Every structure is written in C-alpha cells, then in structure tokens.
Amino acid sequence: EGVTMGHVARLTISTIRKFLHFLQEAMPVRLKGIHLTNVVPFIDKILMLIKPFMKKELLEILHLHSKPETLYPFVQKECLIKELGGNAGSLMEIQKTFNQHMVDNRDFLIQLEKVKADESKRPGKPKDSGAIFGMEGNFKKLDID
C-alpha cells in the first residue's frame, strides 16, 4: 500500500546488488522463505531488474502474494497483523508494544551498544567494500570540450 513506481525509480542497481549480496552471503540467519504481501502489479518489472543478482536458491524461497489470503498456508493467522487478516493485533498496537519494550530495556540496550569485537584477534586480512563491490563510485566526472 502506497508504493509507486517512483519509489522503485529511486533504487539504484548498485544499492539492490549490495542488498542482495548481504541477504545471500552475509546475513547471519538461514531464510526459509521471503513473503511479499500486497505486491504491486509492476512487481514483475522489478524482479526483472534484480533477478540477475539473485541466486537460484533465493528465487525458490521468494513468494509473492497479491492478497493476504494466499499467505495463510505459510503463516498462521494468529501470527499475522490485523491489516493482513490476522489475529495478532494491529500494526500500530504492535509498534506501541515494541517501543515500550525498548524503553523498558533501555539500560540493557545501552550496555549492548558498547560491546565491540577485538579486530586484532580476527584471522586473515579484513575485507572492505571495495574488495567486494569493486571501485564503483570512485570516478570523477570528466568534462570533455
């Protein structure tokens, strides 16, 4: 709801490629499925742009739902928000509960933010974004007369 082609136009191929690299290579969880609900009619055009950067395994777990009812075989209604026909409460209620939970655990979260890795103990040479994504964005504009 509210997504237009203008939103998609703001995404660069580079941004999409970096996001998919993170999703497929660096995210520390194993995905069982990706479900997009209330997809817009032009989703096929968006997928044509990003398919070259997606692994076959990711394409296999990607599910597009034009209406919430097609999501029910995958996710129990008790786990879905009210706006998707579920029983878990409205999105606003869940946001308020989450925000209150963050406030209640503020001290713990501040302490957690101070935890850092000792990079001197990490084996191997550190990888930077240039090694992964190339030299993109490092070129100056040339004015040719």
Shape: extended
Number of DSSP-assigned strands? 2
Strand order of the largest sheet: 1-2
The percentage helix is 40-55%
Protein name: Alpha-tocopherol transfer protein
Domain CRAL-TRIO: 1-92
Organism: Culex pipiens (House mosquito)
InterPro entries: CRAL-TRIO_dom, CRAL-TRIO_dom_sf
Task: Give me a quick take on this structure.
By secondary structure, this protein is mainly α. It contains 7 helices and 2 strands.
How would you characterize this protein structure?
There is one protein chain. With 145 residues, the protein is mainly α. The protein has 2 domains: 1-73, 3-Layer(aba) Sandwich (Phosphatidylinositol Transfer Protein Sec14p); 76-117, no CATH class. 41% of the residues lie in helices and 6% in strands. The chain has helices spanning 5-9, 13-26, 43-50, 56-61, 91-104, 106-113, 129-133, and strands at residues 34-37, 62-65. The chain has a two-stranded parallel ribbon with strand order 1-2. The termini are far apart.
